[in-house]
Specification:
This protein is mainly alpha-helical and 124 residues long. The chain has one domain. Helix content is 81%, strand content 0%. It is built from five helices and no strands. α1 crosses α5.
Length: 124
């Protein structure tokens, strides 16, 4: 493989893609914490991991078409989750809108879940 400045090598690509698995785990921990009542004890670490994995995706613009395609599809599903969240706010379904943190966690979990499913499908 030829050295190309600004391009990620295979190791960088693998690390970048695997960071999303860690973010997925963080999002699941946050979601379970919110549902089962232990959110306060995991908020800082799991929230930081999840946020960090999503912020780190800014560097995917230097990735190949495969990684960019995964990011694009997961991003579309994330937009759909945000749209649904906005819809329930407009309709004013109090059950779903009383906790804004839960909405953000669901959006993050949606992104990471779709990304994980796509990675698993590509391996088969």
């Amino acid at each position: 493989m030829r050295l190309m400045p600004g391009k990620m090598n295979e190791t960088d690509r693998s690390v970048a893609l695997n960071i999303t698995w860690i973010g997925f785990l963080g999002a699941l921990v946050l979601l379970c914490g919110k549902i089962f009542g232990f959110y306060e004890s995991v908020e800082t670490i799991a929230g930081g991991v999840t946020a960090g994995s999503m912020i780190g995706l800014l560097f995917f613009q230097r990735q190949d078409e495969y990684a960019q395609r995964l990011l694009a599809v997961a991003g579309l599903w994330t937009c759909a989750a945000v749209g649904l969240l906005l819809f329930v706010h407009v309709v004013d379904w109090e059950f779903f809108t009383r906790d804004g943190e839960l909405g953000v966690i669901v959006v993050a979990a949606t992104f990471h879940a779709v990304f994980a499913v796509l990675r698993i499908q590509e391996r088969d």
